[in-house]
């Protein structure tokens, strides 16, 4: 990586906002094409892998999925799962491998486009201009907590999953709200550390870690599931929470029913506070059944693929629930809760896009495989940018190449005009 010191008045043919794996992947292509550019990163390159994950975090996708332009995982455990610090080192190593030009510690405050087509980029280091701008900031910006969180007693420690690092931050009894990938893995982390854990279970689906001799995500990759274009999927599918599973200790299922059998308290969706109690709805049974149903449907698809392709794979018994809830709504006395970890997601913040016409009426990016209606402005690194794999290491290289082709063409057009 080559550190860049931005100065007011600088002009670049291309500016990339965001120094994670997506922005760096576009940068790689621009370096190969000889396009002068800068990657602007508010913190430090790849910092989210170090600063936004808990101590025992691992990837949930196998290491062999980690492949960026000109740079693939070449370690000794392709079917394993890198830890937080290993992923951080791997992505930082990528930036170093091709001397990515990165301005670290610079905040992009606003981007506007002049009548002559040039972008004005207002940063904490001064105002610069560019002929193309690419947003590589992802879609998860501001942690979400419910409005009624403010009604919890002050003695109860509250923390968003983004800030959770380890069980030592929290007292004895912890409620985790949300069962996406972060919520379930944090609940497991606390459970393994001996905390009394309660978990508010949402509608997130789950997937088995292994089935019929291989990792389920390896089967799905071979089946082309991650390559299906976003346009071929219903909006509800694109908005759905990712399946929960873990890569911890070599990878395993996350079975919430097993946690309950071991003493974890499972509840339906948290809906608010009544008197001195935290109330949950009666969705627990349905949510657990739905998660199991999705996991089994994935196995059905794998079975069909194995049969269709004539693959020799071992036969495996199907999952059997080890615990069943009584049903009905539940409640927790607030006196019995010492801490809450909110794992209910993030809200996008596109306020820095100024008056650029690249968002719909709901504030969601409008693009076609990254390209927007504003000439020279593009997105990369968004979930479902083009396929299900777009939000994963699996398809970043493909998306970055497509977006970079547009940037290179725009840069050449500018040179031709001049």
Automatic annotation (TrEMBL):
Taxonomy, top ranks, is:
Bacteria, Bacillati, Actinomycetota, Actinomycetes, Micrococcales
Keywords, A to Z, come to:
Oxidoreductase
Q: What InterPro entries does this protein map onto?
A: Auxin_biosynth/cation_transpt, CHP04046_FMN-dependent, FAD/NAD-bd_sf
Which NCBIfam families does this entry report, sorted A to Z? MSMEG_0569_nitr
Decide whether keyword Signal is in the record.
no
State the source organism's domain of life: Bacteria
Matches recorded under Gene3D superfamilies:
FAD/NAD(P)-binding domain
> Does Transcription count among this protein's keywords?
no
Q: Native species of this protein?
A: Microbacterium algihabitans
Q: What is this protein called?
A: MSMEG_0569 family flavin-dependent oxidoreductase
